[in-house]
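Tokens in:
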């Protein structure tokens, strides 16, 4: 019964998304005002997000005839509270599962560092990988931007050298997270903090800042910086993960923001829910 209702609603929402895509394309080709096009884009993304929520099963209670008391709900974030675990205190299997659940294939993170002048920077990263579970080592590849300028994250880490603290914020797979990545990706002067450009805010913690709109944060310490070979302009930064902040006692599945192609983000690995094209 629920499956039939879900598929009927999903089919309708998919048609709405397709119609919005065609409408946006026609308006862009005609040269319609950007304000009008922007409204259609917002409608399109909201509808696509509603489709993703429906397909995830989060709204199944709404489709039951006796679900009068069912209330809308969304994924929790660290803002609603968090619990923190020291990775040294975990046995190998649990530590491996914890790191893998956050640092799975191609998620997009916001990475926090601090400059020698005390400016807190954020930068989107998808080149983060687990090197080892015992000890818990994480790697990140950093290079220069398209204009030939060393990224602030790399500058901050190199100037602090080993021991630099790096926070890795795992983002929820929704349009807000995608918009935050877009905001943090834009080139700004080094004395400008990307924290002022995103929707979330910093939650002070003795291990380092947490991002209120994140679903998890890993706090790390840089232990090695390696210049990559073969004339590469990139560096590999190796970090020791020291603690993880997660949403406590949450059984609700939460999608993560993932990069499905060079400039496209989504809340699902195949982009079937919605897509956000980055304007670098």
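Residues out:
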């Amino acid at each position: 019964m629920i499956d039939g209702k879900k598929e009927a609603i999903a089919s309708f929402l998919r048609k709405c998304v397709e119609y919005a895509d065609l409408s946006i394309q026609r308006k862009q080709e005609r040269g319609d005002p950007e304000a009008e096009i922007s409204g259609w884009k917002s409608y399109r993304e909201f509808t696509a997000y509603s489709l993703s929520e429906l397909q995830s099963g989060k709204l199944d209670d709404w489709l039951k005839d006796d679900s009068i008391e069912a209330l809308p709900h969304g994924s929790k974030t660290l803002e609603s509270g968090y619990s923190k675990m020291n990775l040294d205190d975990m046995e190998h299997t649990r530590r491996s599962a914890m790191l893998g659940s956050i640092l799975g294939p191609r998620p997009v993170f916001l990475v926090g560092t601090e400059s020698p002048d005390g400016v807190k920077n954020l930068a989107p990263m998808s080149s983060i990988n687990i090197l080892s579970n015992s000890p818990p080592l994480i790697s990140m590849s950093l290079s220069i931007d398209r204009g030939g300028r060393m990224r602030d994250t790399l500058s901050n880490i190199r100037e602090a050298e080993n021991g630099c603290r790096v926070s890795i914020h795992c983002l929820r797979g929704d349009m807000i997270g995608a918009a935050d990545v877009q905001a943090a990706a834009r080139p700004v002067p080094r004395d400008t903090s990307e924290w002022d450009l995103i929707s979330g805010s910093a939650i002070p913690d003795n291990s380092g800042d947490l991002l209120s709109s994140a679903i998890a944060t890993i706090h790390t310490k840089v232990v090695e910086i390696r210049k990559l070979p073969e004339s590469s302009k990139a560096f590999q930064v190796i970090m020791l993960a020291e603690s993880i902040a997660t949403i406590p006692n949450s059984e609700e599945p939460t999608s993560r923001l993932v990069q499905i192609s060079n400039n496209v983000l989504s809340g699902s690995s195949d982009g079937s829910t919605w897509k956000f094209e980055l304007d670098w």
